[in-house]
Amino acid sequence: MKAKPLLKALVLSGGEGTRMRPLTHTIPKQLIPVANKPTIFYIMEQISSLGIKDVGVVISPRTGELVKKSLGDGGRWHFNITYILQDKPAGLAHAVWVAGDFLGNHPFLMFLGDNLVKPGFEEMLGTFADGRCDAGVLIKPVSEPERFGVAIVDKHFNILRLVEKPRDPASNYALVGVYLFNENIHKAIREITPSARGELEITDAIQRLLETGGNVTARVQEGWWFDTGCKEDLLEANSVLLDERCTRRIEGGVDDKSHVEGRVETGLGSSIYDSVVLGPVVLGEGVTVKNSHIGPYCSIGKNCTLEEVRVENSIILDDSVFGMVYLKESLVGRHCRIKGNSAIEAAVTLNLGDWSEIGPAVVSHRNTGLTKGGQRSGDTPS
């Protein structure tokens, strides 16, 4: 269903992304690509599909300009973006606080900019539109609820209590990164105090709504949900999105000695020589693959060169060059250089920031793991 015109959207794109370092030293976590598209772009597409025309994006002083450059004015999604500066990472409720002038008394959908949620949650808008609740949240059963805000619900899925990252969870229902609020959330935020970790928690604000007679409803998220704040979840999201969205579209060159199987997308100016590419795989524009085996579940950014390599279940950002290495379950930043030797034996798993370099002595070691020696993670050349 289409949202009412007065409904606004708020996208939180601050935060330091510490769990995604070293890559987030130089790129905001919300701009790290999944299936060769920045994570936050998927959120923008969902907002556009709802017909929302006024979107606020909360940014930080350190990464805000990069986010603004990437998103622009919102015209590509047919809405208008207002940027809101959050001067410090002081919690989700604090982000709503600083966005108060933008939000006014409008109801709004709030998205966490590094969360990917399968479309379909729009039904929550119907419950909200008739005025029966002050807030709506998405919940999903998880195996490690202590990592998230947790909801305790009744049999009708009305929220009874919320706890932020409890040590001993009373429920396995985690809060998914989409929230729906009316104007009453602002008063609730003004009435809470910082948590033990010094932040204004959105769970505390929603709990305050409940304590003052507000009605908060929950809807179970049936489809996938990924908090892409760590490498493992990012790679899982990449696999799922490639499975669901990757098509077969060959826009670059493929020589007669190569075998391209399944759903593979190659960008303009890309070239595949004497190689096997097993989908789902996305190759960006200007990628060169020689004498290599790529896939499945790989997203390769623009202008990368891969020669005598094997890559599986990995995300590689733009302008990187690899030779004689077997990469598996890896996240590699921009402008990286990885060079192995002529004897590719075991797979290596890497987590590299931009401008990282690794030589043969490290790549050939069977036990090479995450961000181990021989690299310069997150450094830029002088």
Walkthrough of the structure:
With 382 residues, this protein is an alpha/beta fold. It folds into 2 domains: 8-241, Spore Coat Polysaccharide Biosynthesis Protein SpsA, Chain A, CATH 3.90.550.10; 248-363, Hexapeptide repeat proteins (UDP N-Acetylglucosamine Acyltransferase, domain 1). The protein has 9 helices and 30 strands. Strand 2 (33-34) and strand 3 (37-38) form a beta hairpin. Helix 6 (184-190) packs across helix 7.
Map the helices and strands:
Elements: E1 8-13, E2 33-34, E3 37-38, H1 39-49, E4 54-59, H2 64-71, E5 80-85, H3 92-98, H4 100-103, E6 108-112, E7 115-117, H5 123-129, E8 135-141, E9 149-153, E10 159-164, E11 173-181, H6 184-190, H7 202-211, E12 216-220, E13 225-227, H8 231-245, E14 249-250, E15 253-254, E16 259-261, E17 264-266, E18 271-273, E19 276-278, E20 281-283, E21 288-290, E22 293-294, E23 298-300, E24 305-312, E25 314-316, E26 321-328, E27 331-332, E28 337-339, E29 351-352, E30 357-358, H9 360-363
